[in-house]
Amino acid sequence: MTKEMKYYQDKIKNSDRLIFIFPYWWGGMPSILKNFIEWNLSKGFAFKYVNSKPVGLLSNKEVSVYTTTGAPSFIYKITGANSRIKKTFKQQIINFCGMKLISFNIYGGLDKSNINTEKILEKIVL
């Protein structure tokens, strides 16, 4: 285990809630977040196998997810992209590690003009 892994796993271990905030790119999370999850929510820390079945070890953790997109929200709704990322994140990461999803929020239509940024920030409860 690297000192960085120990640092982040200690932070995770001592927290009640994990909050993931990321841009929704090309149907998923950015690779830097995926790398963080793969390194820090590792076997023996976040899950283990018992009789070939995964058992989550972070059952006392709650999770909130906030993600943003550049395209309008309706595009992600009509294509099913919203439900795909939520389902994948919930089943393959949160539930797998025994955590509980509190909220999953996707905010569309963000761009450099910050037209609706204030409205979105008002909705976020951490």
* Overall mean confidence score, pLDDT: 89
- Helicity level: 25-40%
Structural class call reads: alpha/beta
Q: What's the SSE pattern?
A: HEHEEEHHEH
User: Quick one: overall form?
Assistant: globular
The number of helices is 5
Please, could you describe this protein's structure?
With 126 residues, the protein is an alpha/beta fold. 40% of the residues lie in helices and 24% in strands. It has helices at residues 3-13, 31-40, 73-79, 81-95, 117-123, and strands at residues 17-23, 47-50, 53-56, 62-68, 100-107. It has a 3-stranded parallel β-sheet, with helices on one face. The mean pLDDT is 89.
Keywords:
single chain, alpha/beta, 24% strand, globular
Brief rundown of the structure:
The protein has 126 residues and is an alpha/beta fold. 40% of the residues lie in helices and 24% in strands. The longest helix has 15 residues, at 81-95.
Topology:
Blueprint: H1 3-13, E1 17-23, H2 31-40, E2 47-50, E3 53-56, E4 62-68, H3 73-79, H4 81-95, E5 100-107, H5 117-123
Parallel strand pairs: 1-4, 4-5
Antiparallel strand pairs: 2-3
